[in-house]
Specification:
Elements (H helix, E strand, L loop, with lengths): L1 E8 L10 H6 L2 E3 L8 E6 L11 E9 L4 E8 L9 H12 L5
Antiparallel strand pairs: 1-5, 2-3, 3-4, 4-5
């Protein structure tokens, strides 16, 4: 299973909704029934041409709301050790939009 996790910073400490539009622009389908102001759950659709045809799952939740820190997680059922998994490519796209907090 491929899994990437990092912490990013937001400037709105009350809701995760500010990142919602960006996630949708990157091609993720937000699961509105599982999402709230405290977490966002989304998936990226399977491309039939991909070798593993894995669905990439995305989760954003508060790491420390008082500091505006959000924990982002990207997972798929692809083998983690493969060099260019769909999960890794999605993580790289997401990290451009939501850089890791240093």
């Amino acid at each position: 299973m491929a899994n990437y996790t990092w912490i990013t910073k937001t400037y709105h400490h009350t809701s995760l909704n500010e990142i919602l539009a960006t996630i949708e622009e990157l091609g993720y389908e937000v699961n509105r029934s599982a999402s709230s102001e405290f977490q966002i759950v989304a998936t990226r659709q399977v491309n039939p041409e991909d070798e593993f045809r894995s669905r990439v799952r995305f989760l954003a939740s508060w790491h420390d709301q008082t500091k505006g820190l959000i924990r982002l997680e990207v997972t798929s059922d692809e083998p983690m050790l493969l060099p260019r998994t769909k999960c890794r490519l999605c993580k790289e796209d997401l990290q451009q939009a939501f850089p890791a907090q240093s």
